[in-house]
Fold each of these.
Amino acid sequence: MKKILISGVCVTLAALALSFLPVRGEQAVYGGVIRLHVIAASDDAEDQAVKLKVRDAVLSALGEKLDGVSDRGEAKTIVSDSLDLVETAARDALSKEGRDDTVAVSFTREKYPEREYDSFALPAGEYDSLRVTIGGGAGKNWWCILFPSFCTSLAEDAEEDFIEAGFTPDQYGAVKKDSGVRYRVRFKILELFAGWFGFEY
């Protein structure tokens, strides 16, 4: 009975301790990428079409400002300082479509699901995000990578664009599709023991 109890406790502790931790630079991806998130007023076909008009207007407004920018800190400053510009561009796009929807623009941290592109995949996680919400924001959203710039088109050599944006080859390897396993299973308890007794885990 005692052995069963001990085994049960061990299994429970292991289950609680088990976690999937990013390796090979995924954490740097979260801090190095800026996303664009545009949310439609509703799932109505017209609202969804308007969402794309707003998207195009926002990208056009920011395009020249971010063109040639390779420093992530500079890109973040440009985006955060351009919220009024983005809101004006979005409102103008709506006005051209005969719409008077409200627009809410913010630069914040948002959680994103994993997203696959042609040659790479961004892990699920929390990213800096330029968020543009149309009306009540009850419709399907649209998102892309604002920095490095992949919103208008996906470059054939994605690695070059990531490296120019400050990523190391290892960090780009973390998101490259054919790089193998991007996550490994680790035990928090073993990590604690490793820290206490000075061995690597």
Note: The chain has one domain: 26-154+164-179.
Amino acid sequence: MKAKMGIGLVVLTALLFSLCPELPAGAPPAVGGTLPNVALPGPKDGADRRYLGLSGSFKIPEIKAQAVIVEIFSMYCPYCQKEAPVVNQLFARIEGNPALKGKIKMLGIGMGNSPFEVGVFKKKYGVAFPLFPDPDFAIHKRMGEVRTPYFIVTKIHPDGSHRVVYSKLGAFEGVDAFLAAIVRDAGIK
């Protein structure tokens, strides 16, 4: 009798999951795995379009770089606010290094943030890299509903495929150490 009830529970659970596509996507992108298939709108700002090398809507692995650092943030997250100057230092360090500029790109996704909120965050904290809104949490769900700030680094292969080399919640341990790990793990040449 218990075995039949167990099988019935498994079948019921499977049925519920198949009927409820709105359930959370699961875990965040894992090291060694790939990013979820999400499209971002083409950047409105000309400098952001030039930086990413794209004009229309795109998927992160389409960015012309050897590696892409994605920060999942929220304008209302006090940790994201505190971390903004450090993340800006990281961007400046990459852009100021001729051996890395163009090879590593950065972008941020404001979970639950409207275009206006993302714009306020960008202006208030002097963020120079592209930020994208996610007002309905659609991308956030696809990314495993991570807390903020969350950093994902993906290596882009010449054939357009990609592989996640870093995926962690919270601040990273210093700009230089983090950048050295990205260069090493993504095989930046």
Note: Confidence is low (pLDDT under 50) at residues 1-25.
Amino acid sequence: MGAKQSLLTEYLDRLNWTPRELAHAINAWLEARGRASDRIHPTTPYHWVAKGFCPYAPYPQIVAEVLSMELGGVISPADIWPGRSALDRHQPASAIAALAADWDVDEVIAKISELTHDDPDRYVPAKGVPLITAALGGIHHSPSRLADTSGKDALRPALMTLIARHIADLRLLDDQAGGGALNLRYVNGELHAVLDLLRNASASADIRERLLLATADLAQLSGWMFWDSGNYAASQRYLLLAVRAARATAQSSTSELRRIATESAANTLGMLAYQIAHSGNPSDAIRIAEAATEQSTHASPGMRARLSGRLATAQAAAGDVHAFRNAADQAKSLLQARHRADDPPFLYYLNGEQLAAETGQALVDLARHNPGQARALLNEAVDLLTPLSSTGLRNEYQRSALLHGCYLVQAHLQLHDLEAAVQALRKATERLSGVQSVRCQSLLRQLRRTFARRARNPYVADLLPELDDALRSA
């Protein structure tokens, strides 16, 4: 077997997958995004493995996305098929392509508009200094003010109020159902409509600024939903552009809107740090989370709690117990001191139960890096994850309950409490039918492989068919 085909084989061996199972995962990835017509034949990957063939675009990037989700890191097509001519002809663009440190508002609006029409699968994730530079350039640059528009139709406050209400409802849709293909398509349609108004409607300065902030909000939501759908690269690009749109709003707005826009930019950076922490680059996540925190020294206690929580997640991914404790304790103290009336509207979801679950999730990651303290860290994680994960099947935050339920299962497994792990997984899978989250489905498939190694246990033997049925119907 040649060197160029051995990398794909190595990845499949790590997953204990056959080429047919890779085909199944690729087709599931496509179906989750409404692209069932692009499915491949179950035997197609055998040619990639046995003969070293490299598929034509867009499949190299899709394979990379699938393997990245399953292995919990960032894998590019070039990592799988280094130097292949098919990749050279269809080289994907970096998530930070053409995001210069110096930018203006019109450029950002144009790039967001291009992104809503682009193929999101053509991007590859960025990391290291280039990613950090692009992120910091979004908050440190002072762009020109938003230009006047001269459209013949005037945008009235009633429509602006409706747009704000739509955004709030779309956030709730994401909380409940996740980043499914149709949900993403609808959010992108809303973003496209707001961009059209921003460019073509006649409006007062205040409404133009609110439209720009709505653009930032919808780009941020798209980025978060792309992350939930398993597309890390498109997520990065949307979030980096959302930071710029929010920063531009802050530069040209009145004092109240300026505060919300500034906090929106910092919050988006915090989201980016969270995602990077879970993509195998904790040092990048720490630097970006620190930058978001530095930008928010005058923000509300609730906002600073949100950013301290993001920093805690990044420190846990790096395995730094002391730094994690400092950030997590600060987040908890700030949240207790908050006044909800002072918080920006996008922090509606953050409460003690949510922050505790996020802390528990971070502790599960931290335990992997600190085996000598693992038992104590995992017991603490169980205590923090159980309340949100065990909540009844209420509609509001199903995706969060499912996600943190998966981490609760991991904690029980690492504590060798198989009965508790089975019970927690049963509770988690009850939520799967209502949640379209590739991220959660990937976690459940990883857990399924772990449980399969214990199939002789009677608890597990009963569980596996139920889990398989739930995953097939998801």
Note: The beta strands are 93-94, 123-124.
